[in-house]
Structure formats: structure tokens, C-alpha cells
# Entry
Amino acid sequence: MPTPELRASTPSKLRSSLRSSLRARSKRPKWQPSWRERQVRVQIPGTWYRQGERDMFLAAMSPLSLVKMVSPPRPWNPTAKLDDQTAGNRARDEKHLNNIVRYLEDNERFVIGAAVLYADPKQAEIRRLKNIPNVSEDEHTGLGVLSMDIGATLAIGDGQHRIGAYEKIIRLRTEEGDEVLRRLHRSGQPMIVVIDGNPLNRAQDFADLQVNVKTPSTSMGQSMDRRQAINRTLLEMFKDPDFPIFGADGSADMVEFQKDNPGKLSAKLFSFKTVRYVSGLLLVGNAYRTPTTMDKAVNAKLDGFDAEVSRSELAEFWRSVGELPRFGDVIDGTLKAPELRKATYLSSAGVLYAVAFAVYSAHALGGVPVSDAVRALDAVNFDRTAKEVDISSEDTIFAGNLIDPETGKLQAGRTAWEAAANLLLGVIAKRTQVVEALQLHGVELPS
# Structure
């Protein structure tokens, strides 16, 4: 209030103006920080809430701003002194980080989940906003402001590779007008800020987050990814009634999307993961040693100038596989999928890999049409042997490669199905009379 001296020397209109100013200041909404507060603290708007007994804050920032506010992560060390502990970070995986970089660079429509960050309560506080017009208030959640000291940093609890990918893009892309940087500048990165200064609590949170997350099966994740040409192509084939091997009338009810391996009693014949890998082997062979490099080669085939040829080969293969005797029995309803699984090796992923690679080799190196190569396998007995020990090639062509001769169990691994593929290729070569052509390419066929 003005002093008596000021009041006496101040014109009435000015006194009235001062009183109005003071009343306005006293009625300032609580969610608006003062001019002084805005100058000395960082203010981030968002939503506050509580989980358990801790205050948390949900907000979003420009990735370019966020990377400047986080402290560099250090790997978790459970034997370090408490004062030297950091949040529970694993050692940085550069391959994983680079994959995120490529994802951000290649996709205009991207989605990156919220990072979990930690603020020291000595340096940050959540100010809850009150009396906001037309906004309902709740004692457990509401709008607010995360108020932080200038220079305070946030510790990374979960999300170091996401934030590291942003940092790498910003550091390496220095050209003015870079489109990727402009895209990041226009984007927001969500973050959950936990007000907790205890590093041990942060480590426990990291462990809890990993336990409480269920990773989708490979089949599910791949079938949802429409960016890859192989996934789009297969999903279109599944809808086509011309491919009953995948399900009647384009229903795809023979393909398992939820799991990577159908159970022995499952009505499904194969998982999406298996169909996808078999299709890749048919198109590009087995020269690629990582899933990423193989995916690139397969997608290039289906997106390139000869895409129609590749799609035609793929269609020819799966139509012909559906005509193999035992698969044909399932399609016409005389045999159910669990019965096929019990009676033959045909639905085994390893056997299908061997079939696809053998057909690829016969077609690519011997010039055998895909359908002829598959039909040549009619001569192969895919039935399971009744023997459980001392299994020989007289019992099954897969003895010693895909089938363990001593236990009768199917063997997993690339070496096993590649050896089986060589034997199947020998059958195809003899029946289609391309033995010499394959040998000219250096292929060693079984005697």
C-alpha cells in the first residue's frame, strides 16, 4: 500500500491506478509465475500426476532442446558408492542407437515413446495450476508447470538410445536447411519426469519397466509393419482366394500372427515369421547373414524394376507348395493341421527353409521354373519316421541334417537346413535334368 506521504503527494487518479494495479497483482492466477520467477527458472508446462507416493510430470519438448537438458548417461554400477550412482542405464548399444537414427532419418511419420527422466527435488518442483477456467480439477492429476533451476539437468532413466539418436542426428547434420533437422524441430518428444533424487530408486524403476513390458512376437511386429514391401506383398497374398495354402477364401486362417511357432495342436500351418523368411529365401537365397541385410535385399526385389517378376515367382512358389500331397490334403479338408504336423515334417520351419532354398538354387542357377522345382519334390517322402533312434537316410532324407539320428528330434540352425536343402536340390536337379548346369556353377550335389 502507498505510504501516507505518498498518498498525500499523489494525485487521486494516480492513487486509483496504483490501487487497481495492486488489486490485479493480488488476483493474479496462481498458475502464472511472477516476472522474476520467469527470469530465474525454466518453466515447462504439462500435466502432473502421482504414481504411488511420488510426483510425476508428463510433458513434451523439442528434441533439439531436450538433448541439452539431459545429463550424459553412465552404465549402472551396483557396487559404486551411493553418491556416485546414476540411473539404472545399460551400456549403450551403438547398433541399436544407429537403427533409431536411420528410422528417424527415413520416416517422415515417426513415433517415439516417452523417455523416463529424473529431476532432483533440490533443483526442480511441480507447481500445480489452480482456478483455470473451464478445466476440472482433481486431487490426483491436473495441469501444472515443472519449474527447474537454470542449469539443472535431467537424468535418463529409460530412453538413452532414443535421446542419443536425436543427439547424433543434431551433431552430424550441420548443413543449413537440413530436412531431417527441420522435421525434428517441428516435432515434440514426450517425457515423463519423476521427482526423485535417489539413484537406487531410479535403478529399481528401470528394472520394473523392463519386467512390465511385453515385447510383441516377431510375427506380430512384422505383420504390422507396412513400410516393408515383403510384408505388404504377403498380406495382399493372404487376402487372395488363389492361395488356399494360407486359408480358405482369403481368410488367412492358416497363418499364425500372434506367435512365432504354432503349437502342435494349432489349427494354423505356419507363423507369419516363417512364411516371411521362406519367401525371402526363395527371392534372394541365403547369402545374407543378418536379418537387416536380408530384409534390404528382399525389399529391393519387391520394390525394384523387376518387382512384378519377383511377385510372380513368389505367387508361383506358394501355389505349388499348396499342391504338394500333404498340404493339398489339409486344403481340401481331408487332413487337419495338427494331423499333418504329427504325420510329416512338412510344417517344420527348417524343412520349409530347405525347400525354399533348394527351389531358389534350382531356379537361379539351373533355370528351372519355380513351379517345376516345387513339383519335383513330389518324389520326396516328408513323412515322419516311426523310429526314435538309429535313424538313417533310408528312414528319411533329413537324417543327419534336420533330424538327429540318435534322438529323432528336429534340429534348429542354419547349418542343418542348408544341408537338407542340398539334398532336396539334388532331387530337383535329377528330375528336371539340370545336374550339369548346377555343377557348372560350382554346386556340389549329393551322389
Observations:
- DSSP finds 19 helices and nine strands in the chain.
